[in-house]
Amino acid sequence: MTKTNQQDQFDFIVIGAGPVGELFGQKVAAAGHSVAIVEHRLVGGDCAYFACKPSKALLRPIQVTQDSQHLAGVTSTQVVADDLLAHRDAKVNHYDDVLQLQTLEKAGLTVIRGHGRLAGKQTVAVDTPDATSRTLRAHRAVVLTSGTTANIPPVFQGIPVWDSKDATAVRDVPERLVIVGGGPVACEAATWMNALGAKVTMLIRGGQLLSGFEPFVSDALEESLTEAGAEIHFFTEATEARRPDGMDQGVGRIKGGIISVRTNTAERFDAEELLLATGRRPDLEPLELSSVGLAPDDILEGRMPEWLYALGDASGKHRLTHMGKFQASELARRLIHDEAAEQEAQDAAPTSQVVFTDPQVASVGLTEDEARDAGYAISTAEADFAEVIGANLLRDNVQGRAKLVMDTATNCIIGTTLMGPEAAEMLHAATIAITGKVPVDTLKRAVPVFPTASEIWVPLLAQLSD
């Protein structure tokens, strides 16, 4: 039986040292509380090494190259695969977490390496790398920030293939790559793998790319990816997959021999590698929730004892890093000041997201369909970036469209979609407008600078009555 030493007592124990767990731990530690944070992989989490950060590190140079190729007077711009991958490696600190570790230790957190799992009320057992076990007890709360794990459709069970981590950590660029899925991961990966020289084929079960966005996004993105060389098949689902020589050779490496996929359309696709971009789910199974009488559904539906919390991906509600960090800040504030829960206030924060394709796709709040389904009476406005002088000065032959959704009862914007050059950097204005419930007549008095792409707001707002 493991003996609990005095140093194994903490005010808070966090399982998962990704950005959400890090932020929560830093907030409560700064308020004078003792915090242990448990991590069995890299401190900093997937976002820092296998998701958001490396993804943008790969996509930004590609975007600059594409912009340059669409500007008169600029020549000899191209993506050099080895240099791009080296740039990616530098931005993720060569997959070394020493700096992240030092940051947490300087903030006063105790970082414990190993697999953390619940072992009773306010108790966490840690299976450490040296094959020993350590028991931790929390005086106040245990916080789960354990991230996600990949969804593997039955047809691919047992077959070595890529998931999103392999795509962002790519080492061996396959000659042919099949991507299963049409969401943000699939579209971003298609962009950089095509630029690295892979022949990309996308198999999409439904009829749209980025199906959670406004419909015009799919049409424009399909055109852009096709022009770049990708082959896209809608209403296509894998029914059989074979890889006779399959083997797992490490993250980002080609897993083995040729993979062959047959589909519901009776087609066959062969490739050196296949990327499963079929979504991820909260990684709750390793936490041994049953030790405290819980199941994964209890976590996802918020049925937890007062000493247990789930944040970010683990909660199933805030699966974007920035939204999970907001949730972590709110919880830390509440626990530091012993405030009552303000779930309605948290849920009211509009969700913002960006997909760094070409053109970029940025959205916040509700789409038109979501707003109608929620019962709002709405007005909408749409405009093309090609009509904006400032956007045309960013690149020739500019593509993209923008849309506003307004609640007619309040004359406030409740949804915005921007698809165009530098859309990601323009989005926060819309986030502020929605969060602050700024009426349209007030927004019309916020005059954008000429000549910038932000002038897209002028034709959009002009269509809405105040």
Strand content: 15-25%
Assembly form of the protein = single chain
Helical stretch tally = 16
| Count of β-strands | 21
Task: Give the CATH architecture of the largest domain.
Answer: 3-Layer(bba) Sandwich
Structural class: alpha/beta
Helix content: 25-40%
Poorly predicted segments = none
Structure commentary:
It contains 16 helices and 21 strands. It folds into three domains: 6-44 and 97-149 and 282-348, FAD/NAD(P)-binding domain (3-Layer(bba) Sandwich), CATH 3.50.50; 151-275, FAD/NAD(P)-binding domain (3-Layer(bba) Sandwich); 359-462, Enolase-like, domain 1 (2-Layer Sandwich). The mean pLDDT is 93. It is of the alpha/beta class. It starts with 8 loop residues before the first strand and ends with a helix. The protein has helices spanning 19-30, 45-49, 52-69, 81-91, 98-106, 164-168, 184-195, 215-228, 296-300, 321-336, 343-348, 368-373, 389-394, 423-435, 440-443, 457-462, and strands at 9-15, 35-39, 110-113, 115-118, 123-127, 133-144, 148-150, 176-180, 199-203, 231-233, 238-242, 259-263, 268-271, 273-276, 280-282, 308-310, 352-355, 360-365, 378-384, 401-407, 412-420. Helix 8 links the parallel strand 9 and strand 10. The longest helix has 18 residues, at 52-69. It is 32% helix and 24% strand. The protein is globular. The strands form five sheets. Strands 1, 2, 3, 4, 5, 6 and 16 form a seven-stranded mixed beta sheet that branches. A five-stranded antiparallel beta sheet has the order 17-18-21-20-19.
